[in-house]
Amino acid sequence: MTSSLLPDIQTEADINALLHTFYEKVGLDERLGPLFQADAQVHWPQPLVTMRAFWQRVLLRTGGQDGWPFPSHLVLPAEGDFFQRWRRLFLAAVEENFTGPIAEAAKATAQEVARRFEYQRPPRPLLSFLKHEV
Questions:
Q1: Among residues 108, 114, 118, 130, which is most buried (max CB within 10 A)?
Q2: Running DSSP on this structure, what letter comes out for residue 70?
Q3: Quick check: 61 and 129 in contact, CB under 8 A?
């Protein structure tokens, strides 16, 4: 399918599809997959609700519950390119499914989230970042 035939992100179902595609990619990633899969066995599905709320609030302007695009209890190592991997996978998930102004806003937000996390190293529980607004 060419990008001109792809829809823009417009509904909660679109956000769900984006997150589903993204987490499929994360699960297959050799470095991110084990971290997120181990975390999912303990803490899922509540973080998905929170992440969905974040993306709905930011992209669809729904207001409502604050959220954050990472599980608040997940700690990613400082070494390596974890946030850049997260960013690349998220951008790929957007580009495979959507095109348009809201899709571009999703990619810009993901870029900013990755930048903020990398800038704020050393590693600490991601809960400490909840107070920051993208």
A1: 114
A2: S
A3: no
- Count of positions (residues) in the chain: 134
Q: Where are the domains of the chain?
A: 10-129
CA distances from 48 to 3, 5, 53, 99 (A): 27, 28, 8, 23
Look up the pTM and report it.
0.75
Cis peptide before 122 (omega within 30 of 0): yes
32-43 helix and 82-97 helix, angle to the nearest 10 degrees: 80
Contact 29, 77 (CB under 8 A): no
CA distance 77 to 127: 15
The C-alpha atoms of residue 101 and residue 59 are separated, in whole angstroms, by 10
Of 91, 16, 86, 99, the C-alpha closest to 51 is 16
Question: pLDDT by residue (tens digit) across 87-132?
Answer: 899 999 999 999 999 999 999 999 888 777 766 555 445 444 444 4
Which CATH number is associated with domain 10-129? Answer: 1.10.490.10
Alpha carbon distance 37, 113 (integer Å): 21
